[in-house]
Design goal:
The chain is of the alpha+beta class and 266 residues long. It has helices at 88-92, 112-121, 129-136, 143-159, 170-176, 181-191, 196-211, 217-223, 229-240, 244-248, 259-264; strands spanning 3-4, 8-9, 20-27, 36-38, 45-50, 56-61, 68-70, 77-83, 103-105. The chain folds into 2 domains: 8-136, no CATH class; 143-249, Orthogonal Bundle (Arc Repressor Mutant, subunit A). It has 11 helices and 9 strands. Strands 2-3-8-5-6-9 form a 6-stranded antiparallel sheet. The protein has a 3-stranded mixed sheet with strand order 1-4-7, with no helix packed on it. This is AraC family transcriptional regulator.
Amino acid sequence: MTSAVAERAQPLPEQLRAYVTRFAVSATDGTPGEPYTYVPDPAVQLVVRVAAGGRPGALVIGPRTRAAYHASERPASCARFSLAPGAARPLFGVAAADLAGRTVALAELPGREARRLVDGGRDLTPEEWADHLVRVLPERPSRAEAERAGLLRAGVAALSVRPGLPPARVADVARELAVSERQLRNLFTDGVGVSPKYFARIDRVRHVLAHAPTSPWGELAAASGYYDQSHMTADFRALMGVPPRSYFTGRLPSTTPCRAARAARG
């Protein structure tokens, strides 16, 4: 199996919790190592990276709907901020769906906060960007943004794998949140970047990735919300490019580095 990108989670300032769910940093000496994997991830991410001897650059990475496998050329240091559901539009001026599968320079996005982040962050190290975000971002979202974010977070929680509970069905989540299925789909498209059903697929595969080393396949399929093991295998193959057994024994697709992927590396 390739290595996932090694990151160290950092304390998240309280002032950022309305916009960011996770802050992590990574660093390398710039020498090649093992190939590594970017697994599917529904979060929009702000990444500040520095190539060895270079200047910082801020990128926005949209939801990653399928795995990518890359050689191990990586920047010297990187800070990664995973955005909360619904935060992309108020911060970057675009819907999360417009970022799906893309890597975009922060300076190219139209949001006022994006411009302020770029203007004030040109000479900061990646690690200094947490405090920079605290200075630049509004103390709290507007009331309308907060209400939409609250609905999205509730929907995300209900559609995620939880201990002892299968993921909820989309129709049941819509009913619980007092919105139509179409409204829920529009909320997810704008604020998460993928449909509720596709979000649930990504979350189930991520659950398999996290628990496969310690769980029998059949039990893991049931705990992840699949009808049976064959359905789990088919979904895993669709998003990861190989079935679970192949992935965990290192039989993987060829690495396929590309310019956008190189820009996204952390």
